[in-house]
Amino acid sequence: MPNKKEAISHMVGSTKGLTGKRAFTLIELLVVIAVMGLMMGFIGLTLLGGGGEELGSAQREVLGLVQQARTRAALSGAETRLIVNAMEEDLEKYHRYVELVVKDTCATTNETNWLVMGEGTTLPDGVFFVPENDSFCEVSEEWKEDAYTVWSANEDDFRLMDTFKGERKEGGSTKFRYLAFSSMGSVVYPPASGGGGVQSPPRLVLANGNLNPIATGKPIRFIDPDTIAGILMRRFGGFAVLSPEDFTSP
Asked: Which domains are present in the chain?
C-alpha cells in the first residue's frame, strides 16, 4: 500500500498530466483561429473579379456579417437574421442598409422580438443588394440572367418597428428582406419553387447601380453586368465567392 508521500506524488503527477493536456488543447485552438484568420485575409484579397474598390469593400463587409450571423446563431441557439431594408420610399437605405438581429421569444407571452446586434451598416454609395427579380429594379439587356439575390424568404410581411432599447418588435412599418440562420447555425433555404421541389441555395448579389426617379416605379437600375459580386451560401457551412463570370449571360 503506498504511503502518504507516494500518494501525493502520484496526484501531482496526474495533475501535471491534465494541465499539459489542457494547455495543448488551448494551443491547438489558437493555431486553428490563426489559420482561419489567415484564410479570411487571403479571401479578402481575392474576393472581387471586377466592379471597383467600393464593390469589393461591400462584398468583404457583407461576408463578415454573414460569418457573424452564422456564428451567433450557433452559439446562442437562436435564429439569427441578416436583414436588408426593403422600403422603396427610403432611397437612402433601400437595399443598402444591413443589420443583424437575433430572435428572442418570451416563454410566458410567446411574443417574439428581435435583438439588434451592434450598429447597422450602409453599403458604400452606388452599391446595392440586387433584388430578387426585375420587378423591383431596372436592368440592361446585357444583365446576367441569374444575377439576383435569393433570400431565405421573399414574403413582404417581415416588418419590424424601429429599434427601442436594443430590440425591434414585429409588426412595424419597416419592411425587410433577410438571410436567416437556424439555431444550429445552418443557413435557411427558401421554399422550393415550381413543381420540382428543388430548393435554391440562398445567394447575396451586390452590384454597382443608380437610383431611379421614383416616378419610374423601380427605385434602382443596374446597367453594367461586369460590376457584379456575390456570395453563394452552403446549407451546413461554407460559401462560394462569386464574380461576374459565375453568372449566366443572357
From this structure: 51-246 (3.55.40.10)
